[in-house]
Amino acid sequence: MRAGYYTGDRTYEVREIPEREPKGDEVKIEVAWCGLCGTDIHKFEGKNGASPVIPPIILGHECSGIVTAVGPDVQYFKPGDRVAADPSFGCGKCIYCQQGLPNFCLERHGVAKGFSDYVYPPEQNVYKVSEDLDLRDAAFAEPLSCVIHGLDLIQIQGGATVAIYGLGSIGSLMLQMVKLSGASRIIVVEREPEKQKLALELGADYAVDDREIEQLAERLNIDYVIECIGLKQTMEQSFRIAGKNSKVLLFGLGDPDQPILMNQFEAYTKELSIYTSYLNPHTTKRAVALLESGKLNTDAIISASLSLEEMEEELKTQENAKKGKVMVRLSGKH
Ligand SMILES: [Zn+2]
Ligand SMILES: [Zn+2]
């Protein structure tokens, strides 16, 4: 079978590796689609993702597919099941798993490296999806589950005013989820005219650039700011535009070596709460349910569907990733 590796120093290679049968509680999935995540690009650029990166590693963790075989201990899956995989393993035994915090599991590792023809996650990481759900959409289960966790943390109240930084693929999901949560006004902060247009199409009330938001913030009390870019300037601006009694969620992944500045006194006078969000504990089932409901527009977010081989060029140029979500076609089944 083929697997797409990050081989260090901004290089990527498709290698042939042996295919095997599933053991124990493993579910063997023929991967249909895998999303390219911002963290894959981070890794390719030599920065750490959610975990340290020691090449060579297989990229991808947002995959869907069809079960082709199951290990002898598997109870709930059979060949032919359509599934999405949660890539984050929780051992269930360590001190964090015991507290219901599998995102901090001491044994945590990626169990569904989706840039490959087959993955073998344990049963506990596999979720059935309905016949009607397109498998390319099912591959959104992981990024959407991360978005849901972030939103679980900040608990948006009905009628709130919400600003979202960045309309990349995460920002686009965030926007649609905030819309569903009953916010009264949604402001997307984005420099690119194309993305501003998309923001309005996806339900934003305002699409403004980083200068205009400062003026808007004087008029409106922004209750929630969700930063989905991870740049120093936009993270720092998030604190400034946040209103009284507001919450800022720093969702975008920043540079590990780049601290950011916050004026404590200003934050104090606003009674600002700052949140960060790490991975996707207990949210994959809800992500699948949302995708099945058809309430989210994924077509508008996808900028390209590419083969495993075409990812070499894409990782180098990020030509399509800059415009939206890149989906990697493995079996390409729908
Ligand atoms: Zn991801
Ligand atoms: Zn654990």
UniProtKB/TrEMBL annotation:
InterPro entries: ADH-like_C, ADH-like_N, ADH_Zn_CS, ER, GroES-like_sf, NAD(P)-bd_dom_sf, Zn_alcohol_dh. Its EC number is 1.1.1.1. Gene3D superfamilies: Medium-chain alcohol dehydrogenases, catalytic domain (3.90.180.10), NAD(P)-binding Rossmann-like Domain (3.40.50.720). Keywords: Metal-binding, Oxidoreductase, Zinc. Its cofactor is Zn(2+). It comes from the Bacteria. This is Alcohol dehydrogenase. The lineage of its organism: Bacteria, Bacillati, Bacillota, Clostridia, Lachnospirales. The keyword Transcription does not apply. GO terms for molecular function: alcohol dehydrogenase (NAD+) activity; zinc ion binding.
